[in-house]
Design brief:
Two copies of one chain form a homodimer. Chain A is an alpha/beta fold. The first copy, chain A, is built from twelve helices and eleven strands. The first copy, chain A, has a six-stranded mixed β-sheet with strand order 3-2-1-4-11-10, with helices on both faces. In chain A, strands 5-6-9-7-8 form a five-stranded mixed β-sheet, sandwiched between helices. In chain A, strand 1, helix 1 (about 20-30) and strand 2 (about 35-40) form a beta-alpha-beta unit. In chain A, helix 1 (about 20-30) packs across helix 11 (about 305-320) and helix 5 runs parallel beside helix 6 (about 110-120). The longest helix of chain A has 26 residues, at about 230-255. At the A-B interface, helix 9 and helix 10 of A face helix 9 and helix 10 of B.
């Protein structure tokens, strides 16, 4: 199989450019058929790469850019004005077929806009969803959509379900993944207008393993592999997951610190707790793919470290090896 | 002040009829101006009351009913067919002004439907929201709406914000409570169509202390006192809160049981953990009020125990003493 080239936006995210560069080197060590184009301030990037050995450096290229899109910038403006930003230039490499995949921890909105306007959607794909994996008691589920597709239509949600299923089956290796739609009750007649219209369409879609509605309380238990919803709801789910976990962490910390006995108890239990909570950590699963584009786009968490960049880069290889985009194209 | 009469649906919820009856007796012990009408199978209820003393029994009445609305029954059908259910008959007591307030742990949908069709909305109130309190690091916030008002309109959300503010200020004692709308980002231009239309209306509403958008990740920290959203989103938030907390509980339990040291650690820390988590428990705050009706309606959790029934009953007193409905009526 031919070399596989990832365009890495090295200037995006809280830990840029150090962590993306480290992650790229780690990925290159792991995968000998991989090439990476580091996009950003070339002098800085070269300095960070240092000397990992000829085998690695021979598979690194640089694309020098002079601008950076900040996390809080309005996406549409940023994309149209900062033509020489690492994000825009790295996306152009995919558009121009100089790279197979794009990875970034940068401004989510800009990635979502850029994915659609620079790289473009596949023919037939109405909206390109962003689909992060969320941790569950059984492992992980794909939450689709958490992107910029607010006020989705039923036909969009059906495409999300289909693309999400293909992703879970072919990239994450879940055979015949279950698909459920986020709803306020288990019964078919429940739901807002969007869900009521979408439900029968999903039921009729033979290419997915649709199991009906999922109430939000059943998401963390891992009731469904692919969780379909409008991006507004997806955003609420994703961020509340984060918020509740963080708050419970604070509460536990307070409890452990409250007296000498509980501090001692904490000392004895902490490694077991950390180990269990680690299974609740998505780092190992890579970033969130943006599906249905003419190229591969992966958004990693804004606070991603080298391990997440590495996993995201390697994940793109799996997309290609599994012919993800071809399968999506054939099914949409 | 005249006696205050609560109609208690004793047949609703997982722990009916024992826990509602116990809760009623506890409330009657606490509040000497309170009267309760126990609605349900009279023989069973009389048997449960036993002999708490003349002071209590003199303030208990019974309304015998022969039907029970089950938790999973379709609400509209249940309300129209089961005319002699405890839920319908208890609501009728409020409608007919034989009771001041209605409390139930029964079928949420039936309570929401019954509230609107039996008791009825105040003039000017377009939709009557259900507003549970959710625990936060700072105490609690009011999540409005979690009811049956799917596909709300901007004007509905503005009424929710107003009623929620009044409730938090006058019943829960938060001076000048902050109000925020659930959104996918902090900026004013973000959001789906509903949020974009509602945002300027909330901003222009001088009777509330509107602080802008709230992202779901900031809900558990207690960023806003009143959290406004469409009921679909409210349901997702409420149930995910529950789901994530439960799953983290499972994970911790697994960690504590994983080896001898961590079990020992758990033994030492457990009382401190329980104490801290208790502050994360809404039992003491009572049930969720359904606001904007011609009477008081409180929905307690389906798994409510005596303490929650007691708190919910006493909470209705606060509504009355604080003239909640008069204030809402004057402001809508």
């Amino acid at each position: 199989m031919a070399d596989f080239i990832v365009a890495l936006d090295c200037m995006g995210g809280d830990n840029a450019p150090e962590e993306p560069v480290k992650g790229a080197i780690d990925a290159l060590k792991k995968d000998k058929e991989l090439r990476v184009i580091l996009v950003g301030d070339e002098a800085t990037l070269r300095n960070l790469v240092q000397d990992p050995g000829e085998d690695i450096t021979s598979r690194i290229e640089y694309l020098h850019t002079t601008e950076v899109i900040e996390t809080a910038e309005p996406p549409v403006k940023a994309i149209s004005r900062k033509k020489d930003s690492s994000l825009v230039q790295a996306m152009k490499l995919v558009k121009d077929e100089k790279a197979d995949a794009f990875v970034s921890a940068g401004n989510s909105g800009a990635i979502l806009v850029g994915g659609q306007v620079i790289i473009g959607r596949m023919p037939g794909v109405k909206r390109a969803p962003l689909a992060p994996l969320i941790p569950t008691e059984k492992g992980f589920s794909l939450l689709i959509d958490c992107g910029a597709n607010l006020d989705s239509k039923p036909e969009n949600l059906v495409q999300f379900a289909l693309m999400g299923s293909i992703y879970m089956e072919h990239v994450m290796g879940k055979k015949n993944p279950t698909v459920a739609i986020v709803n306020v009750g288990a019964e078919e007649e429940k739901g807002n207008a969007l869900v009521k219209e979408t439900f029968p369409l999903l039921k009729a879609e033979e290419r997915i393993n649709f199991i009906g509605s999922i109430e939000a309380r059943d998401i963390p238990s891992g009731y469904a592999d692919v969780i379909v919803c409008d991006a507004f709801v997806g955003n609420v789910i994703l961020k509340l997951y984060e918020g509740v976990a963080k708050t419970i962490g604070h509460v536990l910390k307070k409890a452990f610190k409250s007296n000498v006995l509980s501090m001692l108890g904490a000392g004895l239990s902490i490694s077991a707790i950390k180990k269990e909570l680690k299974s609740f950590d998505t780092k190992e699963y890579g970033g969130a793919p943006m599906l249905g584009l003419n190229g591969m786009v992966v958004k990693t968490h804004g606070s991603a470290k080298a391990i997440e960049f590495k996993t995201s880069i390697l994940q793109c290889r799996t997309f290609r090896d599994q012919r993800l985009n071809e399968i999506i194209r054939d099914n949409i």
